[in-house]
Amino acid sequence: MSYKTSAALAPLQTDLQGKVALVTGASRGIGRAIAIKLASLGAKVVVNYSSNKAAADQVVAEIASLGSEAIAIQGNVAIEEDANNIVQETLASFNQIDVLVNNAGVSSSTAITETTTEAYRRIVGVTVDGTFFVTRAAVPHIKENGSIINFSSVMARSPFPNYSVYVLAKAAIEGFTRALSVELGPRQIRVNTISPGITETDMAAAAGDHFRAIGTNGTVFKRIGTPEDIAETAAFLAVPRSGAWVTGSNIFSNGGLGGASL
């Protein structure tokens, strides 16, 4: 009996030249850093944003300064029609999709008894529905050796108080990733999750100094994570060569959060 070996993977690229990446929620924070990182590796990038056009245009300009190409596409991923339009506009501009990064998400720190239905639906809508809608629209067009990167959080495994709905949504993403990796494996499309720790974003700033202190003191490196830290993990999964044998996985990009005294 003969078996396939890694030799067949040798021609895979070590950068993203000729590739197209669609990054949702890319006007700020982690999404912004990922869009810029993938562009630095040669990808053409679609910068999706929900409302802040000026910030998205700034990301596009920064990518252009790197010598790559990018466009900004407005759309609320939680709305099915918007999600479909984001994918169709991507194809109209670049004709293909190789990397999909489902980064868009929202959070709320509220006790379950005080969580309104509206707040619940907003968190689940952007995180779960948005990931599903964009992925469903994009999957028929993702090329062989493509990569889908979804986002969970360390809180899905080690929850903080009053984040139950956020954790519910992120745990759903982890299960979706595992199932989708099996479904798309025959097409050589890799599907993985990144679980950031506490990262220096608007979300962390809104949570307050105590939250940021946990993100600093709780890591083995004694510093809070940066969006650029997470972008490096996304690049590893996006590049065909480095991420070739990784699928259905959840990578904790968290500086060892929990490995030190909280």
From TrEMBL:
MF GO annotations: oxidoreductase activity
SUPFAM superfamilies noted in UniProt: NAD(P)-binding Rossmann-fold domains
Superkingdom per UniProt: Eukaryota
PANTHER family registered for this protein in UniProt: OXIDOREDUCTASE, SHORT-CHAIN DEHYDROGENASE/REDUCTASE FAMILY (AFU_ORTHOLOGUE AFUA_5G02870), SHORT-CHAIN DEHYDROGENASE_REDUCTASE FAMILY PROTEIN
Protein family per UniProt: Belongs to the short-chain dehydrogenases/reductases (SDR) family.
Pfam family, one: adh_short_C2
Gene3D superfamilies: NAD(P)-binding Rossmann-like Domain
UniProt name for this protein: Uncharacterized protein
The entry's keywords: Oxidoreductase
InterPro entries per record: NAD(P)-bd_dom_sf, SDR_fam
